[in-house]
Amino acid sequence: MVDALNTSQTRSTEPSADALSFDNLQADTPAQKRALSYANTIYQLFHQVMDKQQPADRVVGEYFRVNKKHGSKDRRVIRESLFALFRWWGWLRKFDSQSEIEQTWLIQLTINARLESHPWSEFISAWETFAGLVSINSAPEFSHISQRATWLNEQFSEHCFTTDELVPDWFWEVCPSENSEQRLALVESLSSRPPIWGRVQNIDLDDAIQSLQKLDIPAKGCEFFSDSINLGNKNINLNGLSLYKEGELEIQDLGSQVVGQLCQPRADDNWWDTCSGAGGKSLQIRSLMLQQSQEAQGSIIASDIRRKPLEELAKRAKRAGFKKITTSPWKSDELPVPHAHFDGVLVDAPCSCTGTWRRNPDMRWIDTIDTVLDKPSLQLDILTRSSKAVKAGATLVYATCSLSPLENEEVVKAFLAQHSDFSLEITTHPFTGAKDTMHTVVPYQADTDGMFVARMLKRS
């Protein structure tokens, strides 16, 4: 049974909104009582994210950590409803001015559940009844985002719902798209749940798939990379998987894997990952070396200004049995590694992360246009500093998980204008087959996050 957030829970999760009052509603059945309790909990979590601008995954994770009595169904209803609200908030916020706040919220929850085709019909029915929406037509099985917009426009003719509204207006200013079909496809992908992508290492892909399928995890391979694995859309307890605990499975989005693949590390290369975070790409680069030779002598130095992610990388490398990865944190503006030393330098620069909005739909409403506009000068500075570590005849790779040309192509062009000793290399987009010097991985191309990558060569 789910209880509304009580006083102690409120202190623990620091919600920024008061609990709703449903005193005027008569909940006659256990399902109706649970539905109202869910509504209250989701409301407070939603407003904690929006009002305090805290990441939704962190907010809901902390809530469940404190409130351990929730069963798996409770967690699913709360989590999936919460994240769906952010996916459809561009439409749902149109109802914000209607009636009293309690009824408005129940309307939003009902429509949210219908748009997502959530299976908890008894709770949806209760929300629908309390919201006074019993006269609307049942939602059909949606196969396309345009069908959702059409259904909403038919049910609520006083409003006008367009697909462009599912991202903030400023997004189109920094991520312009003149092609209407591609624009629609992008919104469609950003409004859908992405699969969990991973990589296998030190194990045959087919063996890993077989092992996971025995655990009812719908794992399957990928047509693009021989070590990529699709783990489906359901949440997975990774710490309960022997493959993960033994370092044979790493979680890494397929879009992110494009970066390591386009680095094209050779078995004995020395690489520097300048902004490694917890080291997903460092691990991938080492794995790609070992795929060429189990005796690969190549090495990776991973750097970041934050110590905790580097500590996490060290744990992951140990779990995988990778001995050629070391860390060297940034301590000042000076390089934490030797100059003109590396066969390859990867600059996976800090960015607006608009390419990850599928996984973090809350960020599109928390962030502002400044989240993009503030980044290019920092990115150019990091790229410029990092380029000093590339030796003659070696490789420099620039990447972001942004979809904005301001953070991508424009940064590369600005760098090349100042560094005539570097030139772009032609590479192949793994999903489209297009040959170009700079590639944007768009989420709809292969059901991934969005990424950008450009590979440069320093002249001898």
Structure report:
There is one protein chain. Helix content is 43%, strand content 13%. With 460 residues, the chain is of the alpha/beta class. It has 3 domains: 30-165; 195-252, Sun protein, domain 3 (Alpha-Beta Plaits); 254-458, Rossmann fold (3-Layer(aba) Sandwich). Strands 4, 5, 6, 7, 8, 9, 12 and 13 form an 8-stranded mixed beta sheet that branches. A 3-stranded antiparallel beta sheet has the order 2-1-3. Strands 10-11 form a two-stranded antiparallel ribbon. It is globular. 42% of the residues are buried. Residues 1-15 have a biased composition (Polar residues).
Features:
460 residues; Alpha-Beta Plaits; Rossmann fold; 13 strands; 13% strand; methyltransferase
> Under CATH, the topology of the largest domain is which?
Rossmann fold
Total strands: 13
**CATH architecture verdict of the largest domain:** 3-Layer(aba) Sandwich
CA radius of gyration is: 24 Å
User: What class would the helix/strand composition place it in?
Assistant: alpha/beta
Number of domains: 3
Distance between the termini: 68 Å
**pLDDT averaged residue by residue:** 92
Low-pLDDT segments:
1-16
CATH class of the largest domain: Alpha Beta
Helix content: 40-55%
How many DSSP H or I helices?
19
Overall geometric form: globular
Binned strand content: 5-15%
- Please name the fourth-level CATH homologous superfamily of the largest domain: Vaccinia Virus protein VP39
Taking the sheet with the most strands, its summary is: 8 strands, mixed
Domain SAM-dependent MTase RsmB/NOP-type: 184-459
Region (Disordered): 1-22
Keywords: Methyltransferase, RNA-binding, S-adenosyl-L-methionine, Transferase
Protein name: Fmu (Sun) domain protein
